[in-house]
Amino acid sequence: MDISLQQVGYSYGRNTPFEKRALQGVDGTIKTGSYTAIIGHTGSGKSTLLMHLNGLLKPSEGIVQIGDTQITAGTKAKELKAVRRHVGIVFQFPEHQLFEETVEKDIMFGPMNFGVSKEESRKRAHELIELLGLPPDTAQKSPFDLSGGQMRRVAIAGVLAFKPSVLVLDEPTAGLDPRGRKEIMELFSRLHAEENLTTVLVTHSMEDAARYADNIIVMHNGHSVMAGTPQNIFGDEETLASFGLGVPRSVKLQRVVEKMIGRPLPVLALTEEDLATALARAASEEGDANA
Amino acid sequence: MLEKMIFGRYIPGTSFVHKLDPRSKLSFVFLFIIAVFLANNAVTYGILLGFTLLVIFSSRIRIYFLINGLKPIIFLIAFTFLMHIFFTKEGAIIVDWKFIKIYEEGLRQGIFISLRFLVLVLMTSILTLTTSPISITDGMEDLLNPFKRFKLPVHELALMMSISLRFIPTLMDETDKILKAQLARGSDISTGSIKQRIRAVIPLLVPLFVSAFKRAEDLAIAMEVRGYRGGEGRTRYRQLKWHWRDTVALALLGVLVAALVLLRG
Q1: pTM reported for the whole predicted model
Q2: B178 and A81 in contact by Cβ < 8 A?
Q3: Which residues pair with B97 in a beta bridge?
Q4: How confident is the model over A40-53, as a mean pLDDT?
Q5: CB atoms A96 and B68 under 8 Å
């Protein structure tokens, strides 16, 4: 499901003394099957933008096109529910949305709202509990008895349960320990490949954006200022710095190494593994040249 | 979604009304509420309305914004108006159309009671819009101080009030966030039968309660950690000062009351 944004603008609290412009003239395309990262500073409009991706907010100006549905300022609430079935959002700290008596029921909430049968919803809940690596007896527990990390997984399952074709993630790893972060990010990466998802990741982490995304949109002060592949975006360190953003650690280290050996490496190392491979190749070439 | 609500909101400013001491504003509003009930004819209601508009004008808050934020209450006002129109059966009949009969007294009462309602709500909104929650509680604590003699826990009451006021916007934001998360999971509170709509509120209320309790606990711990131990011997950073303008405001209110007493029928 392609998503395209055309000159999207949004203001909070219109016509009140608290009016605040959050987005202006945002353009962007999210192709079916792509893994898009939206990066930007705090307050750059990332979170506001992502709420446009399933009609939680309607643009004050411009058009949001989601598949065949066009959302503008005048779109009726009824049409939006259909869109939400296809675009699932995992919000920041999604565990705050848990409310049911049991984990199973909470996961079933989404699919049953979208008209999936009870049996099918229950089946999916159990599949997801397993997929997310939760103990099987979790299903009948109260979600409020789980640990923070487990609650996060249950909440994520609650979104995956209605099988959205586009999955939007708002800093899904905020507040997790490094191991938990890695597990969750790897899980989304696997889902993206196996379920043919279109994934949109809003993140502060340049490393995550570089490692997982194939398309990056940079937001700054409510404007979309850069868009392209991670190679392009992180290759342009100066422009990024002007928006208060840096490059992934591996790229930083690559620049240091390049200075030391006095020549650039042929590729941009988006991950630590890339850097290691590039360095090994450079070293063996050096060896060949010396021999 | 909830961003248009204006209850408990404070708009910083430097107008005459903003600069008043919270104690004078609180007593002003309290006395005004009593004074409203003095009005009983067209002239006195006119004066009340004029006075309210004067206060709104001197607070420099845009009327459009006030009216927009008062929409839910305007519904209530309309309801009272209709109740009076249809259920008062005194005076001459002015409309007689099929089964609808409207009496002169009903119309009169309807207009007056709605006006009374409107004036009260506008005035109290102006109070909260121009006074920061902290000042309101400071003023309240100060005004209630004499009641300490009767074992009224004034400081605790003021603290409770300031905490509740402080958390209104926080809980509003929280509600908005949870609402969006549940909407994204296909929950729907704006369509369906009444029963369905009530059921749709549960996914909103449970997380809200959970987080409110968690916040309360965190706050209690944070306060204890910083050595909070009640009001005994506690001094204030913000000192309240009575200015000439506070006297002027109360004097104006005195003029209003005098006018109402003289002109009421």
Answers
A1: 0.76
A2: no
A3: B100
A4: 91
A5: no
Measured over the CA atoms of residue A190, residue A195, residue A196 and residue A197, the dihedral's sign is negative
What is the three-class DSSP state of A164? coil
The beta-carbon neighbor of B186 closest among A12, A18, A114 is: A114
Same structural domain, A241 and A274: no
Residue B185 and residue A113: Cβ atoms within 8 Å? yes
Contact B158/B144 with Cβ under 8 angstroms? yes
Instruction: Tell whether the model's pLDDT for residue B69 goes beyond 80.
Output: no
In a domain, A290, yes or no: no
Examine residue A236 and state whether it is found in any structural domain, yes or no: yes
State which H helix or E strand residue B18 sits in.
helix B16-19
Give the pLDDT score at B163: 87
Same domain assignment for residues A189 and A277: no
DSSP A224-275: EEEEE-HHHHHH-HHHHHHTT----HHHHHHHHHHHHHTS--SS---SHHHH
B74 pLDDT tier (thresholds 50, 70, 90):
confident
Domains: count for chain A: 2
Helix B154-184 to helix B133-144 angle (10° resolution) is 150
Domain that includes residue A280, residue range? 248-285
pLDDT band at B1 (very low <50, low <70, confident <90, very high): very low
* Alpha-carbon dihedral sign for residues B191, B193, B194, B200: negative
Of B180, B186, B207, the CB nearest to A162: B186
Q: Which amino acid is at A141?
A: K
Name every chain A residue with its beta carbon within 8 A of the beta carbon of B180. Answer: 51, 56, 91
Rounded Cα distance between A168 and A279, Å, is: 35
Which residue in the set B184, B191, B210 is minimally distant from A84, CB to CB? B184
pLDDT at B4: 54
Instruction: Judge whether A36 lies within some domain.
Output: yes
The reply to whether residue A51 touches residue B180, judged by beta carbons under 8 angstroms, is: yes
- Alpha-carbon distance of A162 to B177, in angstroms, equals 20
